Amino acid sequence: MKIPKDMQAKYDEIAPIIIDFCDKKLNDNYKGLCLHLLEKLCRKRLSPLNGGRPHTWAAGIVYAIGQANFIFDKTQEINMTAAELASGFGISASTARNKAAELEDMFDIGFFNHEWILPEMMEDNPAIWMIKLNGIIVDVRHMSLEIQQQAYEKGLIPYVPGEQVLTEEKADENDQERPQPEQKKRHKQEPNPDQGELF
Fold first, then answer.
1. What are phi and psi of 133, to 5 degrees?
2. Strand runs (DSSP E) across 2-135, as ranges?
3. What is the chain's pLDDT, residue by residue, as a tens digit (199 residues)?
4. Is the pTM of this model over 0.85?
5. Which domains are delineated in the chain?
6. For residue 92, how far is the Cα from the chain centroid?
7. Count of CA atoms in the C-beta half-sphere (13 A) of 94
8. Which is nearest to 112 in space by CA: 122, 102, 120?
9. d(Cα 25, Cα 174) in Å, to the nearest integer?
């Protein structure tokens, strides 16, 4: 996403703060989503980034993305408290939370919006797979491939789950059909009629 020239300096000021925190405490997928949000803020007409401290914006961005991905849930592999997150930017938890709430309203950030969900969280997040079909809320993963494709084209889901299943099944078939030289060689050397053939 191209950064407007008049916002490049602001991006260059905030991005390193986010990158440093994500490299130390989170992961590359978190970093990608946080920088994506920063880019959208830079592209927003009359960008709110022109007001406020860089560390406050960085904390709000990470807080908003983290909250959408259950970062405050101790059962998650990557987790921390609001106070721990905020302290990494040198601000209070309430300040980070308030800035995050502003961003959530601005860009519809939450676990229902797949744009802000970590790739590793998508499959286990039923909320992003729910669509309205003929007035009824359904899980699109259980619908036909045609309906899944239509939902994807409309931007309702992050990818077509049926196509992914077909790709995985095809890969499994290819693996089964692929000859296994070592196994065949071993069977010739050690024939065992009780064992049968292994593929």
1. -125, 115
2. 130-133
3. 689 999 999 999 999 999 999 999 999 999 999 999 999 999 998 999 999 999 999 999 999 999 999 999 999 999 999 999 999 999 999 999 999 999 999 999 998 888 999 988 877 767 767 777 888 888 777 778 888 888 888 877 777 878 765 555 555 555 555 555 444 333 333 433 333 332 2
4. no
5. 5-116 (1.10.472.10), 126-189 (no CATH)
6. 26
7. 0
8. 122
9. 40
